[in-house]
Specification:
The protein contains 26 helices and 23 strands. By secondary structure, the protein is of the alpha/beta class. The structure holds adenosine-5'-diphosphate (ADP) and magnesium ion (MG). Magnesium ion binds next to helix 4.
């Protein structure tokens, strides 16, 4: 619990310079009056009637008008749930949890009873559940077992304007399900103006607009381009705090680290102001925060005090914070981008779109006339930002998505009804990826292995290693490693005790790399009875470790459903590393200088991330989990391997060049580009031609 919480508490506590105060529940209005004051309440009957009369429906409304929390309840009150659950998808985990919590409070029930939520590796529902919030990814997983969505009477695809891959895929799947089930209702909600497009896709269904009350927002552009947006952000916040009238501030940053830093630095600066200026509460919001801390942002700001919230783009539309009069928008967000040419996915800080900028601006005009400080020039807004955000499906790795579609029997990928089809190159690259992992056979059909892989909600390289581990006899170790990889960084590194934290971390370091280091951490925590004091003493995030434990349990239950064995190899490090190679052989790199590596597949220059236990070590061959692009291309989660494992695990992908003639020492591992692309071309064409004819 404590570390993230501690950060919030200290920021909060220090800025108040005394014990944190429990503000308790909103007391300004009783729940019923709050519900009835929302704009959507005026439309209640019209909405319910329209949903009864139309199979598809698009609902557009300002953020905060009550779409997510109210419409599900109206449908429930009107009896829709007697015919099946009311499902509501969210692109973000945090939003699903926070909204489910809010609705259970409004309905006066325990979370998980009548109202529940499902996110990856966490299911808080019961057989009684009538309203279920979930991530779009989880509904996509359900479609695998139940393509007709028989459990549901209504499905709300919420926040559709976000255009996540899962929502885009669900458009197609639900449209198909609805054609077989005339009683099923599909509602798409959006906070922006894509409504016409959604309606056209869903057979020109009706669009209902919820009139929102919004106040004008003054936009202030930066006169000159800002070199350091963090610095200008902090300056702007200070300036607002000192010079402007009442009202809270919302700042959009790109991620957790940036937000934590800003909170700390701002705190130090505010301290220098002394008592002459009113107090400033500093709160971070990002998805890794525990939900108790997040709910603090919904509490009304105490009198004589201003609140500043540093948030990721989660606060653009997914959650609504009342009382914001000032928005500070540096103009960036972190997006997952896939480069099909090199087959890599990267988190990159990129400029936002004009639509996003306007959405951010709108947050300042919900309670009264507000101001939006754009830390970029007007000309950058007009000339450098794209009008709309590019749908994820057009920029992300589709391997997992295509594996799911194949597992649903959807082979005809070219004719799948995508609202915006992904580029053909990224589809073929995903197919290639799955073929290389042997999830697809030579004809492009799902293999037995591929079917098993599709049962695990994770990237195919991971599920491949997981299934291989059951064969190799190290699935206990592999489930631990994969669970640890799927949670937030477990190492806690507070700014004022970095050296101490680093010294503790080194004690867990495994000489062969980060995967085994993670295994070490987990096993030693387990050996200490999963104790909290062990985490505190060793600078580990207990909350993240607990989550890894839950994930491990979930994986084990999938194992038992699929009758896969859970076996332990007593920490046989070669066996574990070889098994990892079976999933990650594509992510291999060879050392080519003092500290530099080159990826084997395309020769990209990469280095070991400084946080890795292999930093400064000199192994010749490594595999990595992902590449992180910051000032340079870093490999994160790196493990040293023996090069012949590449050829042994993936003889269809690598060969040893020059081994015949020269000494073994000079032998080089090279990708089988020639053979590979020849094979792939004929296979690609034939499988595409086949699927077209079907
Ligand atoms: P929309 O989906 O249209 O953006 P919501 O249904 O999410 O709107 O929110 C409606 C209102 O409920 C907002 O004014 C918001 O402040 C309030 N609200 C939502 N979630 C919470 C929460 N967890 N705690 C307190 N209030 C909340
Ligand atoms: Mg909403």
């Amino acid at each position: 619990e404590f570390q993230n919480r501690q950060l919030v508490m200290t920021a909060w506590e220090r800025s108040r310079n005394r014990e944190p105060i429990e503000y308790g529940k909103r007391t300004d209005l009783p729940i019923r009056a709050q519900r009835e004051s929302l704009p959507v309440f005026q439309m209640r009957q019209q909405l319910v009637d329209a949903i009864r009369d139309n199979q598809f429906m698009v609902i557009v409304g300002e953020t905060g008008s009550g779409k997510t929390t109210q419409i599900t309840q109206y449908l429930d009150e009107d009896g829709f749930s007697s015919k099946g659950m009311i499902g509501c998808t969210q692109p973000r985990r945090v939003a699903a949890v926070s909204v489910a919590k809010r609705v259970s409070e409004e309905m006066g029930c325990r979370l998980g009873d009548d109202v529940g939520y499902t996110i990856r590796f966490e299911d808080v529902t019961s057989p009684r559940t009538r309203i279920k919030y979930m991530t779009d990814g989880m509904l996509q997983v359900e479609a695998l077992k139940d393509p007709e969505m028989k459990k549901y009477s209504v499905i709300l695809l919420d926040e559709a304007h976000e255009r996540t891959v899962a929502t885009d895929v669900l458009f197609g799947l639900l449209k198909k399900a609805a054609s077989r089930r005339p009683d099923l209702r599909i509602i798409v909600t959006s906070a922006t103006l894509d409504a016409e497009k959604f309606s056209a896709y869903f057979l020109n269904c009706p669009i209902i607009k919820i009139p929102g009350k919004t106040f004008p927002v003054d936009v202030l552009f930066s006169q000159t381009p800002q070199m350091d947006y963090i610095e200008s952000t902090l300056d702007t916040v200070m300036e607002i705090h000192i010079n402007e009238g009442k009202g809270d501030i919302l700042v959009f940053l790109t991620g957790q680290e940036e937000i934590d830093t800003c909170c700390e630095v701002l705190y130090e600066r505010v301290k220098t102001l002394g008592d002459t200026i009113q107090e400033l509460l500093i709160l971070p919001v990002y998805s890794a925060l525990p939900s108790e801390v997040q709910s603090k942002i919904f509490e009304p700001t105490p009198a004589n005090c201003r609140k500043v919230i540093f948030a990721t783009n989660i606060a653009e539309t997914s959650i609504t914070i009342d009382g914001i009069y000032f928005v500070v928008d540096p103009g960036f967000s972190k997006i997952n981008t896939y480069n099909p040419r090199v087959g890599m996915e990267q988190l990159v800080v990129s400029p936002i779109s004009q639509a996003q900028a306007n959405q951010r601006k709108g947050r300042a005009g919900r309670t009264g006339a507000g101001k939006c400080y754009r830390l970029y020039t007007e000309s950058a807004f007009l000339n450098e930002m794209t009008p709309n955000t590019i749908p994820e499906i057009q920029r992300q790795n589709l391997s997992y998505t295509i594996l799911m579609l194949k597992a649903m029997g959807i082979n005809d990928l070219l004719n799948f009804e995508f609202m915006d089809a992904p580029p053909r190159s990224s589809m073929t690259s995903a197919l290639e990826d799955l073929y290389n992992l042997q999830a697809l056979d030579d004809d492009g059909r799902l293999s037995k292995l591929g079917r098993l892989m599709s049962q695990f909600p994770m990237e195919p390289a991971l599920s491949k290693a997981l299934i291989e581990s059951t064969v190799q006899g190290c699935s206990d170790e592999m489930t631990t490693i994969i669970s640890m990889l799927s949670v937030q960084n477990v190492f806690y590194r507070p700014r004022d005790k970095q050296q101490e934290a680093d010294n503790k971390k080194v004690q867990f370091h495994h000489p062969y790399g980060d995967h085994l280091t993670l295994l070490n951490v987990y096993n030693r925590w387990k050996a200490n009875n999963y104790s909290k004091s062990f985490c505190v003493n060793n600078f580990l995030h207990e909350r993240h470790l607990k989550r890894a434990k839950d994930v491990k349990l979930q994986l084990e239950s999938i194992f038992s459903k699929l009758r896969l064995p859970l076996n332990n190899c007593n920490g046989n490090i070669d066996l574990i590393r070889r098994t990892l190679v079976s999933g990650f052989f594509r992510n291999a790199a060879k050392r080519d200088s003092e500290s530099g590596y080159k990826t084997i597949t395309d020769g990209t220059s990469v280095t070991v991330h400084p946080s890795s236990s292999l930093y400064g070590k000199d192994y010749d061959y490594v595999i990595y989990h992902s590449l992180v692009l910051t000032t340079r291309e870093y490999m994160s989660h790196v493990t040293a391997i023996s090069p012949q494992w590449l050829v042994e695990s993936a003889p269809h992908f690598y060969k040893v060049a020059g081994a015949e003639s020269e000494s073994r020492k000079k032998a080089k591992i090279v990708p089988l580009f020639n053979k590979f692309s020849q094979n792939q071309d004929s296979w690609r064409l034939s499988s595409i031609r086949q699927t077209k004819e079907r």
